[in-house]
Amino acid sequence: MFALDVKRLTKAYDATTVLAGVDIQLAAGEVLCILGPNGAGKTTFISAILGLIKADSGEINLFGELQQGSTRSRALRQQLGVMMQIGNLSANLTVFEQCDLFSSYYVHGYSATELVALAGLEAHSQQRFGRLSGGQKQRLLFALALAAKPNLVFLDEPTLGMDVEARRALWQQVQQLKQQGVAVVLTTHYLEEAEQLADRITVLNQGVVVASGSPAELKALTHYKVIQCESTLTDQALLTLPGVQHLQREHSLCILHSSHAECTVKALLLADDSVRQLEIRSVGLEQAFLQLTQNDTTHKEHAA
Ligand SMILES: Nc1ncnc2c1ncn2[C@@H]1O[C@H](COP(=O)(O)OP(=O)(O)OP(=O)(O)O)[C@@H](O)[C@H]1O
């Protein structure tokens, strides 16, 4: 049984289609990362699952239970955790008071003291929410999302505004959730975060799933390669090699992005027999993401 099983979900606002038949499945202990440019439909998708908005058509199954309309049963709500946006918490309550309030909603959840510790805010437990730094607020919101000890957690851009250390600490907490068998749906604009955490990435573009797979599978979807070398050729000559789409220079190195790496390398070696330090590698997730979302029609047939 999937923790989450969504089929053909659609949503439009007036004449604008925001979700155009989205299918997503998620098992216990899996981390799914939804990537997509601004306005792709990520928040709308999560809101529809949680019943915050009503989808136009499609099926939403949570723990094997088909959801009708936008109400979610009390028993189901105890299994769900949602990281809210900063503006939804009262600025005047202290960290401990917020944790106490959330703890009181759930019968088998964490105590207020445990939630303060989960947020790593023991030293700030008497500080008002409004006085916390942006990163501390995010840590508290993350802990509050876990108040129920949920089996399925939704994290919408959880590390926004966090410094590197706080971000890595939160990544560790997500890994721990996964080890405990919790299913996690995460949206982020940080591709490194997606690569670190996700078992599976779904790329949404204009409400359509344009690709879905492990980070390695997504990178393999793009046929672009990076060719790195030292060459005496001018920028002009390098850019006219077959397949070259982009050139970047780093000190003595030329870094070429090529859509036809073998042709590029053959032509490069013919044009410059003094080429050194030649290396060919696959593109990173960021390049794959840009290619998938800028030219999604080329990749639709690969969507899993
Ligand atoms: N209540 C609404 N009424 C009309 N249009 C809406 C409404 N809510 C969202 N939209 C539109 O739906 C589209 C998808 O929005 P959504 O917030 O789901 O995108 P997103 O992928 O989460 O974007 P971001 O990365 O910027 O947070 C956008 O074009 C947005 O303007």
From TrEMBL:
Domain ABC transporter: 4-231
Secretion signal span: none
InterPro entries from the UniProt entry: AAA+_ATPase, ABC_transporter-like_ATP-bd, ABC_transporter-like_CS, ABC_transporter_ATP-binding, P-loop_NTPase
One example GO MF annotation: ATP binding
Transmembrane segments: none
Record keywords: ATP-binding, Nucleotide-binding, Transport
Organism: Alkalimonas cellulosilytica
Full protein name: ABC transporter ATP-binding protein
Gene3D superfamilies given in the database record: P-loop containing nucleotide triphosphate hydrolases
